[in-house]
């Protein structure tokens, strides 16, 4: 009997249980059918004839395990443009999650607000990435709503009490709209809010001290608004805060010391404001990421600021910090940016050598002195090393060759002497090498030509002598070669046909005829051979270099007739006594390209390549290297 009963239950649960319990109530089923009809979209197939169980429709979620009621509807990215279906959704009383993000909805109908407001179980509303316009509607009811995402819309106006009725609100996202007025602080009477995302609006005024009434806040993002004044000290009372982002506003005053009291704070960004005064000691104690760049902070870097155990990224660049770089450095550091300050003294060598994870080190545009420490060779993860525009002296240490992951090496505008070490050729990933404007001497080591990933080589403004490595044509990534203002001489070897941005051999000791191999550089935009002793005629193939926009031949010993160039080519032939102008002028042809003021083709390719190089590294580094590139480019144009 027992065995029979067991068998009975066994087969019952297998064969009948799903059939009986996996059915939606007929009411919900009809609503879902009605909903499917009202949607009018082609790319979701909610078809009761093809799939009789709406719980199995794409984007529909039912309660488990019984599947007896719909709890989730996700209609993300299905090209919805009419909001008419929205009130219908509110007939599903069991609904917990509604995601209509990434569509073309223009409004939230009042019928939706009144009907869905009654659904106590509704926890999440996602209207992000739509085209909602007008002002924020008043939310009445919605007693269970925890997540409200209205980001990436076209909402405007000030915010007052519209959201104050949301007693359960834990996460509010209003970023990327056009909201104005002051930072809203009426965000749910019960103050259970945890995440407040207001970035990229037009909020203005001060940070209201009322905000600290929301004791459960873990995330505040006020970035890219027009918030001014100083940050209230009381912010330190938000003892659960993990992320505080105040970037790109008009905030001033000092960075509040009270932040050091928040033990949970892991990320603090206050970059691009007008903060001044000294950096308070201890604020990085618990942090992983600190960004205070682009402010007017002064004084020296607190000795303990860079040492906390968990600290991974620090950006203090573009401030007015002085004194030396603290010797205590966290071994977790991945990125350290201290550029464009007034830091002096030497690099804390011993500490740097321990930074095995350091990937980006940017100390440019300070007044740092001493040697480029050989210990940098121990920073095996380095991908970017920028020590440009300082007062580093001595020679380039051969230990740099150990940096096998290095992609960008910028040491320009220092006081470096001695020869370029042959070990430089070991940095096989190098794509940008800039050691211009130093006092390096000796010849260019032929081994540099093995740097097959090098895009940009800038050795300009040194005392380099001897000839250009014969094998240079094999550098098949090279797009820019700057060798101007050295003492180079001898034969000019065949150049890489990849050269596009510029070939600059100006102000050296080259002589003889302009080499015919230049005819192969059909992608080259700028060629500068000025201030040498080139003689003979200007080759006619220059006229066939279709990408050429600037040809600088001034101050040589060229002779004969100047060939004709299209009107889009800037040609400077001054200072060549033997040159004569052509006897008759041809009508100017029209430029094959549109206005050159825009970014040239080569630049775009170059930027794309650099972008690819840094895809892993995040965009800050990219932005910085591009900025650097632009500056170099500007400088070069000025030099011309
Ligand atoms: C409930 O629906 C899900 C799909 O939404 C399905 O994977 C599951 O098997 C269903 N459960 C029952 C008991 O029907
Ligand atoms: C579904 O639509 C029909 C006709 O349009 C209507 O009569 C019915 O009340 C609707 N049912 C639900 C549950 O919305
Ligand atoms: C359905 O969408 C098409 C275009 O996708 C539109 O022309 C038509 O008017 C819409 N119908 C309804 C009832 O909204
Ligand atoms: C829906 O269709 C639009 C174009 O009609 C398309 O861009 C989008 O990728 C589709 N969405 C999904 C989820 O397939
Ligand atoms: C809303 O949807 C967007 C895009 O689909 C997604 O990135 C975002 O995380 C969602 N918001 C919430 C609160 O789930
Ligand atoms: C955004 O809203 C403004 C009015 O507030 C309107 O002029 C503008 O056309 C809207 N933009 C879009 C893309 O709908
Ligand atoms: C809006 O912010 C919330 C809270 O930080 C987040 O969960 C959500 O993913 C954000 N939405 C988008 C579209 O990024
Ligand atoms: C904060 O969260 C806790 C639990 O996470 C909750 O008990 C409390 O009511 C919330 N609100 C405030 C204001 O502390
Ligand atoms: C920033 O604040 C200063 C005063 O602190 C004010 O003079 C200036 O106009 C503000 N700038 C912007 C863009 O609002
Ligand atoms: C940090 O917290 C302690 C104890 O709560 C308090 O006495 C002190 O004033 C706080 N420090 C700052 C700078 O707010
Ligand atoms: C740093 O600058 C401050 C003023 O901002 C000045 O008082 C101090 O003497 C400077 N310290 C050093 C080491 O130059
Ligand atoms: C160098 O730093 C100074 C401030 O110390 C700044 O004004 C200047 O713009 C910076 N130069 C470059 C090229 O970044």
From TrEMBL:
Q: Which UniProt keywords apply?
A: Glycoprotein, Leucine-rich repeat, Membrane, Repeat, Signal, Transmembrane, Transmembrane helix
Matching InterPro entries: Leu-rich_rpt (IPR001611), Leu-rich_rpt_typical-subtyp (IPR003591), LRR_dom_sf (IPR032675), LRR_N_plant-typ (IPR013210), Plant_LRR-RLKs (IPR050647)
Cellular component GO terms, alphabetically?
Answer: membrane
Q: Where in the cell is it found?
A: Membrane
Tell me the ranges covered by the Leucine-rich repeat-containing N-terminal plant-type domain, including all copies: 26-63
Cleavable signal peptide: 1-22
> What is this entry's stated membrane topology?
Single-pass membrane protein
Could you tell me which Pfam families the record lists for this protein? LRR_1, LRR_8, LRRNT_2
What protein does this entry describe?
LRR receptor-like serine/threonine-protein kinase RCH1
Protein species of origin: Prunus avium (Cherry)
